[in-house]
Amino acid sequence: MRRWIGTSWKMNKTIGQARAYARGLRAELSDRGEMLDRVQPFVIPPATALAAVTEEMGPLANMAGGIRIGAQNAHWEDSGAWTGELSIPQVKDAGATLIEIGHFERREHFGETVETTSWKVQAAVRHGLTPLLCIGESTQIREAGKTATFLLDQTRGALSALTVEQMSRVIIAYEPIWAIGAQGRPAKVGELREPFDVLAHEYGGRTEALLYGGSVTPGNASELLGIPGVNGLFVGRSAWTLSGYLELLEVAAAPENP
Ligand code: PGA
């Protein structure tokens, strides 16, 4: 199984910066095609740069054995009076075949709820996009011993309306809130075993992939990929430079990380 190694650039990069990154990535991946036998890369640019990144990736964009391009968010309705929003058909038109749903920052700052994640997941599968559902608990929930229940509430709430076939297209990214971003602290492998046991028991083999995210670096990627149930990594800061992302792809493709 190819490992999913992807990055969301969050609210970073101009169109010019995004083009430069994508051009470099295309050149590297074209030179090292064997890497694509072992990893499934994906990039999630800001919406303003989606079309440009898709164009720069050329024949690698969204092709089997190539790189998947995603959007960081989209509305559940196909069109209408929703000022400031983008619809799934619109991000699809700009090149996205994957859609990030329910990232902690959207839940925290923009009112994303389990209910809205469920509507977005259903809209994504209706349009043939891969939903990348992000879940994760706070420190308080973890300390109260309620992580497993909380994660299952988030996933079941978002995914319960799907058919078996639709479920097989979903990617779940487990990203504990306390491990994300500049304020986060890297998780210890031991802290991630139970959540992945729970997720793998419920979703392993039934979904496209289970990913880990939160303070991933080239230095800890290998041990994170070794956690049972983990099929890939979802990365922020460490992959915002092309060299950082390439390092991560190399770690994931290395033969010593079977
Ligand atoms: P980080 O972000 O790698 O910068 O911690 C991860 C995420 O928010 O998905």
TrEMBL record:
Highest taxon in the source lineage: Bacteria
InterPro entries to which the protein is assigned, alphabetical: Aldolase_TIM (IPR013785), TIM_sf (IPR035990), Triosephosphate_isomerase (IPR000652)
Compartments, record wording: Cytoplasm
EC code: 5.3.1.1
Catalysed transformations (reactions): D-glyceraldehyde 3-phosphate = dihydroxyacetone phosphate
UniProt entry keywords in alphabetical sequence: Cytoplasm, Gluconeogenesis, Glycolysis, Isomerase
Pathway the protein acts in: Carbohydrate degradation; glycolysis; D-glyceraldehyde 3-phosphate from glycerone phosphate: step 1/1; Carbohydrate biosynthesis; gluconeogenesis
Metal-binding among keywords: no
Any single Pfam family the record assigns to this protein: TIM
Isomerase in keyword set: yes
Main location: cytoplasm
GO molecular-function term, one example from the UniProt record: triose-phosphate isomerase activity
Listed PANTHER family: TRIOSEPHOSPHATE ISOMERASE
Subunit relationships: Homodimer.
Family (UniProt): Belongs to the triosephosphate isomerase family.
Stated name of the protein: Triosephosphate isomerase
Source organism phylogeny: Bacteria, Bacillati, Actinomycetota, Actinomycetes, Micrococcales
